[in-house]
């Protein structure tokens, strides 16, 4: 996926098998997509800080408002202003996939 100068690659797994981590734990294509989307948002935030433009701001806001399935929105996504999104971008768009 890409937007302007930011580009993020992510794996797409066989729908039947998906990516097995260990035992019964797997990572789905949707989870990989959401992780990549967050990485893209981080890159866009860095670009926006260097050069502010409306199109990049709108894309960051779009990703911020995305209905993430695998990342808990209650804990990480609160309605905040755009400057706060930029300041807290590393926490808001943390793309790590954690399995317990």
Shape verdict: elongated
Number of strands: 4
Describe the main β-sheet briefly. Answer: 2 strands, antiparallel
Note poorly predicted spans. Answer: none
Tell me the strand order in the biggest sheet: 1-2
* Residues in β-strands, percent: 5-15%
Order of helices and strands: EEEEHHHHH
The number of distinct helices, counting runs of at least 4 residues, comes to 5
Write the layout of secondary structure elements.
Elements: E1 2-3, E2 6-7, E3 19-22, E4 25-27, H1 29-50, H2 54-64, H3 73-76, H4 82-87, H5 89-92
Antiparallel strand pairs: 1-2, 3-4
Helix pairs in contact: 1-2
At a glance:
It contains 5 helices and 4 strands.
Question: What would you say this structure looks like, in words?
Answer:
This protein is mostly helical and 100 residues long. It has a domain at 25-92. It is built from five helices and four strands; from the N terminus they run ββββααααα. The strands form two sheets. Strands 1-2 form a two-stranded antiparallel sheet. A hairpin with a 2-residue loop joins strand 3 and strand 4 (25-27). Helix 1 runs antiparallel to helix 2. The protein is elongated and about 45 Å long. 17% of the residues are buried.
Keywords:
single chain; 100 residues; mainly alpha; two-stranded antiparallel ribbon; two-stranded antiparallel sheet; 5 helices; 4 strands; 47% helix; elongated
